[in-house]
Amino acid sequence: MTSYIFEIFCIDSNGQSEIKNEKSLIQGLSYSSKLWSDEMKDIYDTGKWSITDKKLGLHLKIKSVDTSKVLTGFFESAYNIKIESKDFESIETFRLKILKHLRDKLKFTHIRILSDDISAHIAQELYPAINNVENLLRKYLTKFFIQRVGLEWWEATATKDMIQKVKERKTDRKDLFSQLSDADVSLADFDDLGELIYKQSSGFNNPEKVVEKVLSINNGEELENFKSELQGNYTKYFKDFFRDKDFESKWKELYKIRNKVAHHGFFYKVELERGRELITSLSQIISDAENNIDELVFSIEEKEAIHNAIEAISEDSIIASNMDIEEEEEEEKTVGLKVLGKIKLPENYRYSGFYRPITESEMLRQLTICEQNRTVSYIGLRWFVTIHLAGMNYSIGLSYSLVNILVDKGRIELYDIDSESYPVKAIKLKK
Q: Are 145 and 158 in contact (CB under 8 A)?
């Protein structure tokens, strides 16, 4: 059986305690009926005082500490107390009792915990389970947002602080896993992972976006559309699978326990039991949500909201890239301004790997041109987006997203072409 040790250092730093030697300490400990059972007995063995309580399964030893060589803050007496037991529950409850007795009854003013196998045991049991549920949520977030939002989900969903924190970690670590795979959510903190879940609301995942949208509403129809957008399938999905199951409060409660594990905090049995309950409940919540990812179907309004959110992120990236270019070329003369959407760009702007978003009217215009000038019987979707539109510096991801929206609106049609080599998805204007 495992033997658990709880070891403390108690010091009388100002002479208030009446304990002056090992014998008076053993007597001060042994007389308390709150500490021991009726079968307790104290033993003097070859100069070392100890207490054994067979009923509770506890063995306590004390040893005085030499204080004569202390350089500063002289104190009169100090003792090392070591409690050992194979009964986890017995020693777990005994810890607080003896600390209170030493402080309140025996008047020791300075107490240090040297060893706490009980807290270590609880932390070692909880950590792998906490790590498991944390990675379960990472897996879910990656699957859900890539399948339902797209490859730009991290930039569109995470806060600026999260994005910056992950960028710094990528730079600091420089490990092969981060170089060979997309490491964003895998480098996010425990509390940030939870925030990505419980702050989802139809693409408006922070208050500023909601305020901005509300301020732009001009009439009752726009207000009703916004209300529908906020109460659509996206919001209902997160409400049903997370909010209604109290995910946020459970995740935050487990976060507090996790922090104690990470920072070697002192644990109680009740925290072990509560930690187990939270981990079981959260694991079930995440698994249920993952099993129902395919059941979520976005409305046209929701697709447009997500598309617009990602478009805004892309435009911000263009501005950030352009600002870097301007810093590098600050001595060059800027000739005039042109406008891309609501964003002003210098005339000598270059994209530097970023692509601009395409509007609905421009996509329909380009598809019309392709249909009028085509030399084959169909227009391939992949060719149209990745060659034709990308060749004009239109974002591939945003173009695919807009195609999806225009299909829902009945403006574009996608259909399959039989091919001997591989299947082809074709695109055309809907008549």
A: no
